[in-house]
Amino acid sequence: LIGEKNSGFDVLYHNMKHGQISTKELADFVRERATIEEAYSRSMTKLAKSASNYSQLGTFAPVWDVFKTSTEKLANCHLDLVRKLQELIKEVQKYGEEQVKSHKKTKEEVAGTLEAVQTIQSITQALQKSKENYNAKCVEQERLKKEGATQREIEKAAVKSKKATDTYKLYVEKYALAKADFEQKMTETAQKFQDIEEAHLIHIKEIIESLSNAIKEIHLQIGQVHEEFINNMANTTVESLIQKFAESKGTGKERPGLIEFEECDPASAVEGIKPRKRKTFGLPGIIKKEKDAESFFGDPWVAQRFSACLWPRARSWRPGIESHVGLPVHGACFSLCLCLCLSLSLSLSLSLCDYHS
């Protein structure tokens, strides 16, 4: 921890600060895991809904209900894990806030150690320079003596050498004092940093253990869902699928009755046939006049006079009578003449109807 450059304090302090980064990164990791689990849960829910839209025809239809139920339970399992991870994220964030406050307090407490570190570092540098200067002055003094320099030059070099010696000794003493203070404070601070780091690692380990237990619990639930799915599929036999199809789509259990040959009975067959009444064709105006004529001829007085007037003539217009052009009237021609006669009679009847009214 001390080393040649006395940089142990800097290492321990930055390691403590790195704990905050680790806490933040752990929260980000758990948050990302929760996002993945949430997306997976939504996908499973969507898959379960799609299973409801699959074809419900045929004997395989009940199997989709098993898939839907199992998929929905899996989606709920992952959603439960999301809730637990979100609670864990809040716990990590809370710990991170407490960690920042604790580190700020620790920084104030180890401020004296930082001064001791800076002091010994500066004294060490000064001591090194004074040592180099002392060695240089001693070498210079010995060189002048060997080269036979003047007494004045030798004395002058001796003064410089003595001054360098005193400075070097002074820094050695200062270094000894700074070293003692540094070691004492550094030992206390190192223990403090170790306690902080141990507490940090213990807390982080507890968080990770909570994460592991949450995932383990959900995986146990997922295993139960899969086991239930296996059992449901084992209970869904071919016979049960066919039975469900027969119950839902069955059209009845009665078989067609026996039909025997029956001989035809002409008498009953004729009686069973009802005469069909044909609908006459006619224009609306003519039909109305025909109805008026029927009501008119229903009067006994009109019917008597109409028969006395037209019937003798109709009898005389039998086949053998010649027309105005000299041709005999037979068959259809007679029917045409009769229709003309009836038309004239209808006009006469309407006139009589007006008279009678």
UniProtKB/TrEMBL annotation:
Lineage, broadest ranks: Eukaryota, Metazoa, Chordata, Craniata, Vertebrata
Q: Does the keyword Membrane feature in the UniProt annotation?
A: yes
Q: Which organism is it from?
A: Canis lupus dingo
SUPFAM superfamilies in the record? BAR/IMD domain-like
PROSITE patterns from the UniProt entry: F_BAR (PS51741)
Which family would the database say this protein is a member of?
Belongs to the FCHO family.
F-BAR domain residues: 1-241
Report the locations given in the UniProt record: Membrane, Clathrin-coated pit
Q: What is this protein called?
A: F-BAR domain-containing protein
Give a GO cellular-component term.
clathrin-coated pit
Q: Say yes or no: keyword Heme present.
A: no
- Lineage, top-rank taxon, reads Eukaryota
**GO BP, one example?**
synaptic vesicle endocytosis
Q: Which UniProt keywords apply?
A: Coated pit, Coiled coil, Endocytosis, Membrane
* UniProt xrefs under Gene3D superfamilies: Arfaptin homology (AH) domain/BAR domain
Pfam families per the record? GMIP-like_FCH
Look up and give the membrane topology term: Peripheral membrane protein
